[in-house]
Amino acid sequence: MALLEIRALSVGFETPAGRVTAVSGVDLEIGVGECVAVVGESGSGKSQTLLACTGLLAMNGHATGSVRFDGRELLGLRERELQRLRGPGIGYVFQDALGSLTPHLRVGEQLVEALRSHRDTDGATALAEARRMLERVHVPDAAARLRQYPHELSGGTRQRVAIAAALMPQPRLLIADEPTTALDVTVQAQVVELFRELRRELDMALVIVTHDLGVVAGLAERVAVMYAGRVVEQGPAIAVFAAPAHPYTAGLLAALPRLDDDTSVPMRTIPGVPPRPGERSGGCAFAPRCGRRAGDCDEQPPELSGSGPQRAACHHPLRAEAP
Amino acid sequence: MSGARGLWRDALRRLRRNRAAVASLLLLALLVLLAVAGPSASRYPPDELDWAMMGVPPDPASGHWLGTDRLGRDLFVRTLHGARLSLAIALLATLVSLTIGVTWGAVAGYAGGRLDALMMRFVDVLYALPSIFFVIILTVVFDRSPALLFFAIGAIGWLTMARVVRGQAMSLMHRDFIEAAVAAGAGPARVIFRHLVPNLLGTVVVYATLMIPQMILIESFLSFLGIGIQEPLASLGNLVADGAAEMETAPWILLAPAGCLVTIVFCFNFIGDGLRDALDPRER
């Protein structure tokens, strides 16, 4: 049984301009100890999908469908129950590490705080645990760091501290929302390496939400590509990267810059922009930007289909023509 | 909790580097010490009339260092007495305002939505009541006493505090660290008092130090109207009011308590400034 099972999840927001749908009918499964990447452009609904799982939507947000964690339905669960789940059940790491650390709390207090919501431990034990956790995420000179404030740390160290804070209650599932986006490229690589290592050592499932396919490659076992609030393709990472079935996935992969690219040729991009949440039409949301668009694309939104583990929501998937 | 202690210890360390604040703190400490111990050390009691020494200007030789008032009472002793009572009332009233206002505002700002609207409308309604009438009614219904006075003033002061805190809390609620704390499973009380309120303290402390002199002024206003501190008890308020009546012929009767009042106000302002810088770990 899957650890996290999202079925037909839709997320909408009540705004002064009316109801805006950010996520529509997403199905996603994360197995015990599995690493899944959710990939998509900004606004594709990838963050909201995962925030909705533990009731972290903004106050005007509303989620329908079903989210089961360890077999237990989470949507509609009481706030107090959700609180108990956040942390030891599902932990989060956010993009902006400095912003997500409470400014007046020292690193040590920050980490102890993450534990105190769930466990009654005396200060010394908790602090010792915090120090072990800092060492585990490879923060150099952990003992000294415990006494520092978030603003005194470098970007990479902050993100490591934020990861350590999320790991303190030993979550069974860690959701990392754009964990490397705000970091330098070299630091990005280190953080990705850290995630890889943590997965090996801890028995923890990991969801990486990102727009950066480079981060995902080699880390995730499975990939779900989202576009305009829907999952357009999902499957084993190797298969999806080697032979994308959805034209959007193919476009994303083609748009990745490579070191051996001929610099005189302009970078490949996907023409057009994603539809705004209010403007989605009845047909395939990607159709206006798609090179393979045909008549039926504008009539009916495609469902996730395909044989085997790799499935794409496309009327004219790339694999169909190559037998 | 260890976190709160660490915050204040660090703030104190930074405060010590601020000369104006340290000087103000020392001066205020001296004033408080004088106000508490001074009157009993003087040979003149605060309410004894001296028919031979009425309206005498300051003269160290006679022992009346700041002169006497129209009834021959020693102004030095009376000013210190007044400062003691005024400070006590202002501090207690500020404390009352602070406790109610911060809790009310932080809860409203945290909750948002309907509860916030309800709580803030309640504040609006109380705001709409003329506060001086409210205090007058309180003093008429209950016996006049300094205790009632500080309670009444505090009951007014928390309204503004609640608004200030609620506004700050609302803007902080959108910060990522609150979301991160919620995502880590922190309950409402923990989010409010561990993540939200300590981040408000800078504002609250600065506002509170501005509130103390304001409270002294309200007290003096009420005393001037005759519903605050009554003779023969002295407060800075009624001493200034007394002095104002005599300022053309005997300016020292006004200058002694007024100087004391100004000094206290200045000290609190400098201390507030220093505290604000000290409590914000990003500003060094």
Helix content percent band of chain A? 25-40%
Q: What is the helical fraction of chain B, as a range of percent?
A: over 70%
Please report the distance between the alpha carbons of the first and last residues of chain B.
Answer: 25 Å
Q: What is the quaternary state of this protein?
A: heterodimer
Span between termini of chain A: 33 Å
Treating each run of at least 4 consecutive H or I residues as one helix, how many helices of chain B?
A: 10
Low-confidence stretches of chain A: none
Q: Which H/E pattern describes the elements of chain B?
A: HHHHHHHHHH
The biggest sheet of chain B amounts to: none
- In total, the number of strands of chain B is 0
Protein described:
The complex is a heterodimer of chains A (323) and B (284). In chain A, 31% of the residues lie in helices and 22% in strands. Chain A is built from 12 helices and 11 strands. Chain A has helices spanning 46-53, 79-85, 97-100, 107-116, 123-136, 142-145, 155-167, 185-201, 213-216, 237-242, 247-255, 318-321, and strands at 4-15, 18-30, 35-39, 61-69, 72-73, 90-93, 173-177, 205-210, 222-227, 230-236, 311-312. A 7-stranded mixed beta sheet of chain A has the order 6-7-8-3-9-10-11, sandwiched between helices. The longest helix of chain A is centred in the middle third of the chain and has 17 residues, at 185-201. The longest helix of chain B is centred in the last third of the chain and has 38 residues, at 188-225. Chain B has helices at residues 2-15, 19-41, 75-111, 113-128, 131-141, 146-173, 176-183, 188-225, 236-246, 252-279. Chain B is mainly alpha-helical and 284 residues long. Chain A binds chain B through residues 54, 56, 59, 80, 83-88, 91-92, 94, 96, 99-106, 109, 112-114, 116-118, 123, 149, 151, 162, 165-166, 169, and chain B through 2-3, 6-7, 112-113, 175-177, 179-187, 190, 194-195, 198-199, 281-282.
